[in-house]
């Protein structure tokens, strides 16, 4: 009897629930502003060169939900955005596209670049130069100091891009865990206390590489592809500790293999392309 | 029980879409926020000569900055201020986040006050570039900063403001800075009352100290200072003994600032003698803390970038007059970490007496800490408890003879002991934030700041 009651009552209840909110209300026009936003010259340039060509949106106007709320940050100057993005396109996007083609690379590229004018200061006194999030977004800081006529400054910016993009590659396809076993006991939270020389002797290309294996991998790629062959060799030749030097060489082989096997990319060809781009930028061709 | 539950569910189902709720507002919150944004945008663009505000990023720390803004089509805004050299043409937008928000969304002069590259590094001056709209009224728009919540009010600007307000404000603020050889004390008279007013151009704030002779106490507070066409303004106005002063006017004939408030006569002068007694400033300092010293100068840890480390050390140095500063940075690089006057030694075997203490390292970058102490006697010079004289009493103590010898060899040691042992002594002047000026009675241009710790 109870089951019979339930069978009888349930459809009635369902009808009440489903029908109770089905009034034919005319909701009228949207309360939100749905008109096409005004596009500045910077916006148009981004639409044409980043969204149109690569499906990458660039956020350069301040949106607080996009940035870390616990930091004090400022947006970039509007007039630095296009020069910066031209340089980024030349020495980052175009190098990968030349190597693998647009059809392969566009789906891999992050979908969003967030540009910030200020540095991102950390409580330990360090500065975050960039971050990569979920394979989809790269945040780049310190556009206030971007200077396209200063080749060291350009190289530093491009280095950050290659570092962060390497994180995105790793987020999509993990690297061989053997990489973490090359210098397993040398990773440290107090990496800031180490000089370049100490880091190199311990088997790392920079002190930051000592922070953790993921950063170590990204630092290897960023350092290798933005260095000229001479600069890279000078780095290795400057390491007196043979164990440290051998560790860096071993890591380089693992990075090379990862790029070949996971992404069908030649690390050395990428290096040549990045270096050619940096030379062109130095000449003002970007 | 099941029947009751079933009936309850049925009842709830019938109640769920009851449309008879009373609406407090006629429109939804989304529409109201959108309306406020639209009203604000229309109001901002309606003024041909734009808007002005005296912006105080943090009233407990900073002073006032004049900002002129002209809002145009397509989110363009022109900005002129008295803290950036050039005007900026930048963009703004209105959005809904903490209510309706006005956002200056690309870099402008205003962002200079929010830039974390300014001191203190990582924080900057706590300026805002996003403002929550509180109220749009006929002749003003009231905002609060989105991050820190301090109030900011826009008033209509005039065509003349764009021509002469900013240069005049800059010029008058520059006149407020004392000449390098000016006496230490800044006496501001307001009818029969005098206050000591110390202006800090780096924060555009003034530390104001006044004495209540009835209770024999002093009070120190900060007020924001901003430049005006005629002189300077105070925000909030100074209110002491029933006298209110909201600004000073620069009198060209007297080459001095005079009170600009009707019914109040007074002026601002630089004088050698304290304009007021700083009741019990030294007595309080010596009895309520066991030490007063320069802030910790910097920790000498191995760093990947020594240049930055050394710059940080200089940045953390406390202030003092120019003659005391000379030689001090070299001592810092040479291993000095801190010196202070301590009333109770931290050492277990020395439990009383006052000490003039030097802390440091025996060599650069060595993290070990050593100290060298000179025992001192002190004598209060007047019953107001704000003047003191020190003398060595012959007691010494050190933990490392190498460090002791190094300290004694420094020009810094000679300069500071000579300064501290001056027979005429010091007036102790509270500077706020637990900081105290020690001002030489013999020559008020010689002083240093000690921090309570």
Describe the structure.
Chain A is α/β, with parallel strands linked by helices. The longest helix of chain A is centred in the N-terminal third of the chain and has 23 residues, at 78-100. Chain A has a single domain (41-282), classed as Collagenase (Catalytic Domain), CATH 3.40.390.70. The relative contact order of chain A is 0.10. Chain A contains 10 helices and 6 strands. In chain A, helix 2 (41-54) packs parallel to helix 3 (78-100) and helix 3 (78-100) runs antiparallel to helix 10 (267-282). Chain B has 3 domains: 29-157, Lipocalin (Beta Barrel); 170-271, Lipocalin (Beta Barrel), CATH 2.40.128; 281-452, no CATH class. Chain B is 22% helix and 38% strand. Chain B contains 10 helices and 24 strands. Chain B has helices spanning 2-15, 29-46, 109-112, 159-176, 281-288, 306-315, 322-325, 328-333, 401-409, 411-420; strands at 51-55, 65-71, 76-81, 88-97, 99-104, 130-137, 140-145, 151-156, 185-190, 193-200, 205-212, 217-227, 231-240, 243-251, 256-259, 268-271, 291-293, 336-342, 354-360, 370-380, 387-398, 426-432, 435-440, 447-452. The longest helix of chain B is centred in the N-terminal third of the chain and has 18 residues, at 29-46. Chain B is globular, with a radius of gyration of 29 Å. The termini of chain B are far apart. Chains A and B meet through helix 1 of A and helix 1, helix 2 and strand 4 of B.
Beta-strand residue fraction of chain A: 5-15%
Query: What would the average pLDDT of chain A be, to the nearest integer?
Result: 91
**What number is the mean pLDDT of chain B?**
85
CATH architecture of chain A: 3-Layer(aba) Sandwich
Order of strands, widest sheet of chain B: 1-2-3-4-5-6-7-8
**Most extensive chain-chain interface:** A-B, 42 and 41 residues
What's the arrangement of secondary structure elements?
The complex is a heterodimer of chains A (286) and B (453).
Chain A lengths: L1 H18 L21 H14 L2 E3 L18 H23 L1 H4 L6 E4 L4 E2 L5 E2 L1 E4 L3 E4 L10 H22 L23 H6 L11 H14 L2 H9 L4 H22 L3 H16 L4
Parallel strand pairs in A: 1-2, 2-6
Antiparallel strand pairs in A: 3-4, 5-6
Helix pairs in contact in A: 2-3, 3-5, 3-10, 5-7, 7-9, 7-10
Chain B lengths: L1 H14 L13 H18 L4 E5 L9 E7 L4 E6 L6 E10 L1 E6 L4 H4 L17 E8 L2 E6 L5 E6 L2 H18 L8 E6 L2 E8 L4 E8 L4 E11 L3 E10 L2 E9 L4 E4 L8 E4 L9 H8 L2 E3 L12 H10 L6 H4 L2 H6 L2 E7 L11 E7 L9 E11 L6 E12 L2 H9 L1 H10 L5 E7 L2 E6 L6 E6 L1
Antiparallel strand pairs in B: 1-2, 1-8, 2-3, 3-4, 4-5, 5-6, 6-7, 7-8, 9-10, 9-16, 10-11, 11-12, 12-13, 13-14, 14-15, 17-18, 17-24, 18-19, 19-20, 20-21, 21-22, 22-23, 23-24
